[in-house]
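Lecture notes, unit on protein representations.

Consider one protein chain, 244 amino acids long.
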Amino acid sequence: MEEMPVPDALKALIFDVDGTLAETEEAHRQAFNRTFTEFKLPWEWSPTLYRELLKVSGGKERIRAFVQDHDQGRDTPALDGLIARLHKRKTELYTTIVAAGGVPFRPGVARLINEARALGLRLAIATTTTTANVTALLDGATGGAGHAWFETIACAEDAPSKKPDPQVYKVVLERLSLRPHQCLALEDSPNGVRAARAAGVPVVVSESAYTKGDDFSGALRVYPDFETVTLEELRRLYAGMRYA
């Protein structure tokens, strides 16, 4: 067992986006498939296949991984341009869905955020998705109010090295001027847990539809969702941090 030091009281909560703030992945999958159809590509990502592809962080990286496994005849220069065009169109389709309110926050998330704000805890986002995707989600799920809830939002543009690389967490920590153990990360995926822990940030998990049953070694606690999880419970968990 590894006991992690707690140098100070909990100062901030750092949220992942896809699968944590909201169950966005099905909307992503549908947007990918609609994009493939528009581009007349013979590709379709089933829920089972998409779960496997989610082991790769980042939409562009996910397309590349799929092509390398299923369509090895494409040359690399042409593939780079195709991926860029596919991802741009996919983002347009996805943001239209979520900006219209089609993807609400997961159970308990808004309440946790409100509890944290009431106690003066700082809030941040650390995600491998694009700024456009985060903006659309906050517009659709919170009517735009959510933009003011988070002191800093670090996205794919800010940290090109995707999770499980800890780069995005390091960006958030630097912006907040906080030490890793003054924060608690909320994630839904093994890659997210690995990224947070590599940055020294303690982490709890709410399993999402596409990560249920995965290996979350390194997390303080794994929840099915945050519906009944209070901020006080998270603070107690943080105060007695123990890692497997």
